[in-house]
């Protein structure tokens, strides 16, 4: 009888836990999704009407004019092409270089791996600074060149550590068996290690791709004088800077016609449209790497 009561009480606690867990996760989902829906609604709302406020998850005056306005700016298409190409090239080379360095450091027979690993980790805490970095890029002749987007960030210490941690968990006997069969180091790396590292490589690829896609400061520092090498984020940043901030108060626009208001209104909707334009490509790519990304983020969480 006591066991029956205890079992019924435990089942009741489990049910209460499930209800509480559902409520908590629902709140987290709302808090997570609402900002994006709010930005999307404002981006699809009339720019002048947005100043009144009160827009939540549905546009009050639906329009696509904000997106049309964005693509009227010069160099936006050029910036999109440059951002897309630097993302693809930078991601491929960044993942490949990080994997090669990590493979070398994960080898038990590599004598200097502890020293080199320490040096790599130190670069995460100390850097030369902005001015020495600019002077280095200048002395390398990469000012106003496309490769300034690729070469400086081709090797990342954080990505190397992530990939190496994953490779350390792979059985070293696989490499020994391959050596016995006559495989060289390149064959071991390319045909054995790389296929097993798909989860961590997908994780690193997402990190690198997001960083490349969102980067604009390198364009500002090194290629701002060359319109042909502009990037989408840099062009959108210039649009934000050129935004008229003078009439954000609705009371200041009383008595003005709609044409007059259009000259003074702070286009908050355009800003939100810019945000959507920058986010959508990443949202399109993420579902394809989500499975591997989740696996890669749990590296080291379970030890056998």
TrEMBL record:
**What highest taxon heads this organism's lineage?**
Bacteria
UniProt domain ABC transmembrane type-1: residue ranges: 80-289
Q: Where in the cell is it found?
A: Cell membrane
Q: Which UniProt keywords apply?
A: Cell membrane, Membrane, Transmembrane, Transmembrane helix, Transport
Give a GO cellular-component term: plasma membrane
**Matching Gene3D superfamilies:** MetI-like
- Report which residue ranges the record marks as coiled coil: none
Return one Gene Ontology term, BP aspect: transmembrane transport
Membrane topology note: Multi-pass membrane protein
Where is the major localization of this protein?
membrane
Q: Which InterPro entries match?
A: MetI-like, MetI-like_sf
Q: Is the keyword Transmembrane in the record?
A: yes
> Which residue spans traverse the membrane?
21-44, 84-103, 115-134, 146-167, 188-210, 270-289
Q: Which family does it belong to?
A: Belongs to the binding-protein-dependent transport system permease family.
Could you tell me what this protein is called? Carbohydrate ABC transporter membrane protein 2 (CUT1 family)
């Amino acid at each position: 009888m006591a066991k029956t009561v205890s079992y019924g009480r435990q089942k009741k606690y489990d049910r209460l836990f499930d209800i509480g867990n559902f409520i908590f996760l629902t709140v987290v989902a709302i808090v997570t999704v609402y900002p994006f829906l709010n930005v999307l609604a404002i981006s699809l709302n009339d720019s002048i009407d947005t100043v009144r406020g009160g827009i939540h998850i549905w546009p009050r005056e639906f329009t696509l004019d904000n997106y049309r306005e964005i693509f009227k700016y010069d160099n936006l298409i050029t910036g999109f092409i440059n951002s897309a190409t630097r993302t693809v090239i930078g991601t491929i080379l960044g993942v490949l270089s990080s994997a090669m360095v990590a493979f070398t450091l994960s080898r038990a027979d590599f004598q200097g791996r502890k020293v080199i690993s320490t040096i790599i980790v130190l670069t995460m805490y100390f850097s030369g600074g902005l001015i020495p970095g600019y002077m280095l890029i200048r002395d390398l002749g990469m000012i106003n060149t496309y490769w300034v987007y690729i070469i400086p960030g081709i090797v990342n210490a954080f990505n190397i550590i992530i990939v190496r941690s994953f490779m350390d968990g792979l059985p070293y006997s696989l490499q020994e068996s391959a050596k016995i069969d006559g495989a060289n180091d390149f064959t071991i790396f390319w045909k054995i290690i790389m296929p097993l590292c798909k989860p961590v490589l997908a994780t690193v690829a997402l990190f690198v791709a997001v960083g490349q896609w969102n980067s604009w400061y390198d364009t500002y520092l090194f290629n701002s004088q060359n319109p042909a090498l502009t990037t989408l984020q840099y062009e959108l940043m210039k649009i934000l800077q050129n935004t008229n901030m003078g009439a954000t108060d609705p009371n200041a626009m009383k008595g003005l016609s709609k044409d007059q208001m259009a000259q003074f209104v702070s286009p908050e909707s355009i800003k939100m449209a810019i945000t959507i334009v920058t986010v959508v490509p990443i949202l399109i790519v993420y579902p394809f790497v989500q499975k591997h990304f989740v696996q890669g983020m749990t590296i080291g969480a379970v030890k056998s």
